[in-house]
Amino acid sequence: MLNDLLDRNAAWSAERQAKESDYFSRLAGQQRPEFFWIGCSDSRVPANVVAGLDPGEVFVHRNVANVVHSSDMNLLSALEFAVEALEIGEIIVCGHYGCGGVKAATEDFPHGLADHWLEPIRRLARAYAVDLAQAPDLEIRRDRLAELNVIEGVRRVAETPILQRAWTRHVSVRVHGLIYGLKDGRLRNL
Asked: With a threshold of 0.90, does the pTM exceed it?
């Protein structure tokens, strides 16, 4: 299995170099992405692939269900680095329909450590219970909850001291909420 992965990497590297001889030296020379992407760990939603970007064009942080926790030092460190060091001007919180983390947050049985991580999604489900109940089926209800989680993530990113300091200094940083459709491969602006 690992040997297959290494062989695929070697083939990809050779193909990239054949198409563009300075590709890797250019990537190694400087990291200047335009976007900071906060996305889900789901293997079906790799940021650069779904956004049609090359490596080096997007700085990425991923976690289960793209939750923005105010105490997540990993996320906050990446956000601070993106804004302060990389001077990124576009921050994207991106969720996706059919999210397993959102599904787990709506189930009534234990999921181990994930239960603590997904608590903000459970709170959203409780806060929007009346609206979510209007959805005709469970899948649509969960997809709407995935959208609400993105919207909440945008709000939480905007409230961080990192963004507040940047905006006080008149740094142009915008925060966007996107949702990705697994069934059609499209990103939608929320």
From this structure: yes
